[in-house]
Amino acid sequence: MKITNELLKLKDEKNAMFELKLTPGLDINNIIGIKIPELRKIAKSYIKDEEVDIFLSSLPHKYLDENILHGLLINEIKDYDRCICEIEKFLPYIDNWMVCDTISPKVLKKNSKDVIKRIKKWSKAKHTYTVRFAIKILMNNYLDDEFKSEYLIIPSKIHSEEYYVKMMISWYYATALSKRWDETIPYIENNVLDKWIHNKTIQKAKESYRITEDEKKYLTSLKRN
Question: Which of the listed residues 85, 94, 217, 218 has the most CB atoms within 10 Å of its CB?
Fold first, then answer.
């Protein structure tokens, strides 16, 4: 395939080793090592190429870089229905956080009412990275103008032992505390979250420059032993 062949010409063994450390469980032979900014450029240059449809249909991919590029190509899709279709097809094949966190199409923000319904569905999936993706989009798109306090409930209903799910939920609530303190702090005060997520949320929130020193001290007092 043309796109894959072009990626292989950009092999960077040093960066491949670095990315292997960030994505435990992958095989070094399945990492080309192309840096994300370069993959973004490739996505923009290829989005109108007739090869793209073939590439997006060729699942599963062999290389991490192909999967990252796949996500970046989805980001470039302007038609909402097509974008959702490609997301739904790709989600089951995502096997690491790096690929998952790459996907954040702007067109989703223009269709918030439909997307929140899909987030609720994705958040109940058994697949680790479908759930992580759901909470990531909830964090990115629904803590500002589209915020509703009821959306804070969605991650609290997820009880998972998967590290990359728990980390995303913690990240979500830490961000929510920085943007929507009054609505979010009861989730900490009332021990709504699983203990590990509760404490990790506090840790991550205390690292935020958006949260005041007094708020950080109060969060410290709410840590569970």
Answer: 94
**pLDDT single digits (tens) 133-156:** 999 999 999 999 999 999 999 999
DSSP string, 141-203: HSSSTT--GGGGHHHHT-----HHHHHHHHHHHHHHHHH-HHHHHHHHHTT-S-HHHHHHHHH
Contact between residue 104 and residue 75 where contact means Cβ atoms under 8 Å apart: yes
The three-state secondary structure class of 124 is coil
Q: What string of H, E and C letters represents the secondary structure of 55-97?
A: HHHCCCCCCHHHHHHHHHHHHCCCCHHHHHHHHHHHHHHCCCH
> Rounded to an integer, what distance in angstroms lies between the CA atom of residue 147 and that of residue 112?
10
Q: What is the DSSP letter of 119?
A: H
Peptide bond into 155 cis (omega under 30): no
Q: Is the pTM of this model over 0.90?
A: yes
Check if the beta carbon of residue 129 is closer than 8 Å to that of residue 100: yes
- Under 8 Å between Cβ of 122 and 91: yes
Domain locations in the chain as residue ranges: 1-103, 119-225
Question: Would you tell me how many other CB atoms lie within 10 Å of the CB of residue 121?
Answer: 10
SS3 content of the chain, % helix, strand, coil (to 5): 70, 0, 30
Cβ-contact 169, 158 below 8 angstroms: yes
Cα separation, 151 vs 129, in Å, equals 20
pLDDT tens for residues 169-204? 999 999 999 999 999 999 999 999 999 999 999 999
